[in-house]
Every structure is written in C-alpha cells, then in structure tokens.
Amino acid sequence: MKISLLKAFTVLTFFISFNLYAQFAGENPLAPETAGSKILLGPVFGYNSVMHSADKLATFAGDAYCPYFDGGTGQGFFAGLTYEMPFGKAEESVSSLIFKVLYSTYPGNMDIPGDEFPSLVPDQQSATEVSIIRTSTNHTLDISYSVVALEVFYKQNISVDLPLGVVAGPSIEIPIQKDVLQEFHLIADNNIQFSEVPGFQYSADRRTVILKDGPMDNANGVRIGLKVGIQYELIPLEGWLMVPHLFYNFSILNVKSDEDYRINLFQVGVDFRYAF
C-alpha cells in the first residue's frame, strides 16, 4: 500500500511540475496564446468538526461484560497550501483541478457510563465493621489523531458570472499521530478509591485507572477520504482569489484494522490564491 501511494504521489508531483513548466515556458509571456494563463497558488486553513464512529469498540479488550464505545466528537483544524489549474483562460474558466497539501487534526473524545459496583467503606468508629455503598463509574477515550493529506479535486462552477462551485475528489492521508488515552473513572462516591492491582496505572488519588496511554493498537497506516463540498470565489484584491468552502470528508477505510471504527468530518475553511 505504501509503495502504491508513493508511486501515486510521484506521478502527481510530476504532473503538477510539468503543468507549472508549461505555464512559464512560452517564449513571450505577453503573447496572445498565453495571455490568459494563470498560476493560482496560496495558503488554505480552516476548522474540522470531527465525528468518531465506532461499532462496539471495547472498553476492556476481551471482557464481554464491559460496555463498548460507540462514538464521539472533537474539534480540530487544518492548514496548508493549495494550487489550482484552470481549464482554459483563468478569467473565463468555470472548471479546474485543485491540489492541496494539508496538515489536519482529527481529535475526539468518547465517554460512556460504566456499571455501579459495591464498595466497602470502613466504619469510622470501629476497626472491624464496614458498610457497603454503590459506586458509579465511567469510561473515557481521548484520541489524538493528525494527518498529512494530499488532495485532488475537480471543480465545476455554475457560470462565469456566478462563481459558486461544486467540488469533489479523494483525500489520501498519512497519519503522523494516532495516540489514545483510555481511562476508567470513579465518579461517586468521592470517598472511594480503587484498590491497586499489579499491571495497571492509577492517578495520584487512585480514582482513575489508566488503561492505555500511547499509540493506538492496530492502527492503519493510511486514511483515504472522499470529499464533496461547495465553494464560492471572491476577489478581495487585484490578483487575489479568496475561496470560502464547506466539505464533508467521508472515510472509506477503518482507522483500525481490527475494529469497525471510522473518522468522518465537516470541514469549513478558506483558500487564498494569488494569480501569478
């Protein structure tokens, strides 16, 4: 898979480089045949509304009696560079190819109530007598997930006079961070603590069991998303194009190889492209 992605990235880089060369290679840049040619290049940034969707993601692996995480949400961001290659003269074009290289974060939090357990409380006035109370618990899973993405889109505007466009294409993403913090908490009564069991980590007050703090187990090495959205083109200054956009980014592959667990998201952002 990694070799195939490398080949695809190499071909795409060559394609972009060839197109840039073709844009600049005319003997006379003022000649009529090249007068409308533009290179639209600039930064892009925005906000991610992240949805983590899971089907029976185990809180305790191998324990059928414990509850399962079924999903959560998070808020992230993206930033990078975008390049647009219009079909035809830029000022008359209603369709184009758009390329983006992004750094993007997809954090998330899952939270599910646990069972109530009986706890023994020593009597304050007797060393031998104890009472039993019911103790509430919950499970949490905090996900730190970030990627470097290579995206290719086809854009189609309604018309030259109405630069509202529909945009769609794949996003090939390499995760560079995929860490989890999974904990089991006592949330009531406040006077109760866990009895320490070898092999587990505990918080300083012994009211939280730290089950996992580190890289995600069995995480896939690539995320492939299909992005569909709309955008609108504005010209705030001469030579500049400002493009606010809204995308839905649907995950085609699972995040983990052994779980039905995906990350989907809405992305709201803006591109700034300068016409060279």
Instruction: Please indicate the percent range of residues in DSSP E strands (runs of 2 or more).
Output: over 45%
CATH architecture classification name: Beta Barrel
Task: Please give the domain count.
Answer: 1
Q: From N to C, what is the helix and strand string?
A: HEEEEEEEEEEEE
Compute the gyration radius: what is it?
A: 26 Å
Low-confidence region ranges? 9-36
| Mean of residue pLDDT values | 83
What distance lies between the first and last C-alpha atoms, to the nearest angstrom?
Answer: 36 Å
Number of strands: 12
Structural class: mainly beta
CATH T-level fold name:
Porin
Percent helix, as a range, is under 10%
Spatial shape? elongated
Please report the first level of CATH classification, the CATH class. Answer: Mainly Beta
Tally of alpha and pi helices: 1
The largest β sheet comes out as: 8 strands, antiparallel, barrel
Q: Major sheet: order of its strands?
A: 1-2-3-6-7-10-11-12
SSE topology sketch:
Elements: H1 2-24, E1 40-58, E2 68-86, E3 95-105, E4 108-113, E5 117-122, E6 130-157, E7 164-188, E8 201-202, E9 208-215, E10 223-232, E11 240-251, E12 261-275
